[in-house]
Structures are given as structure tokens and as C-alpha cells.
Amino acid sequence: MLKTFGANLRHFRNEKGLSQRDLYALCNIDNAEISRMENGEVNVTLNTLAQLAEALDIPAYMLLKQ
């Protein structure tokens, strides 16, 4: 599940033309933490999931979809 989430996060971030630093600026999550999320190394909270989805302007479930 973490790998799927990470791949989806990277996909939607790239689709929006955002760098990890850009995403950090939008949701105030450290870009090193974003990197760990994208690599499937960290479990995120629901609040973090919601923040990322809002910053990417997508429904939260899209980050979890396989």
C-alpha cells in the first residue's frame, strides 16, 4: 500500500508540474519527507493524506487507488 501511495503521489505531483519543493510550499510538508513518502518508506496520517490531496487538487482516494 505504501508503494502504491508513493507512486501515485509522484505521478500526480509530476502531472501538475510540481517539484517536491513546490509541493512542500503548498502543504508545508518537508521535501525530504515527501521523498520518503514517494519511495514508500513512511506511513502517512489521514491529515497528511488530506493535505497532499488538497495541494494536488485531487480527491484523497486517488492517492490510494491501485
TrEMBL record:
<dbReference type="GO" id="GO:0003700">
    <property type="term" value="F:DNA-binding transcription factor activity"/>
</dbReference>
<dbReference type="GO" id="GO:0003677">
    <property type="term" value="F:DNA binding"/>
</dbReference>
<dbReference type="InterPro" id="IPR050807">
    <property type="entry name" value="TransReg_Diox_bact_type"/>
</dbReference>
<protein>
    <recommendedName>
        <fullName>HTH cro/C1-type domain-containing protein</fullName>
    </recommendedName>
</protein>
<dbReference type="InterPro" id="IPR010982">
    <property type="entry name" value="Lambda_DNA-bd_dom_sf"/>
</dbReference>
<dbReference type="Pfam" id="PF01381">
    <property type="entry name" value="HTH_3"/>
</dbReference>
<keyword id="KW-0804">Transcription</keyword>
<dbReference type="GO" id="GO:0005829">
    <property type="term" value="C:cytosol"/>
</dbReference>
<keyword id="KW-0805">Transcription regulation</keyword>
<keyword id="KW-0238">DNA-binding</keyword>
<dbReference type="InterPro" id="IPR001387">
    <property type="entry name" value="Cro/C1-type_HTH"/>
</dbReference>
<feature type="domain" description="HTH cro/C1-type">
    <location>
        <begin position="9"/>
        <end position="63"/>
    </location>
</feature>
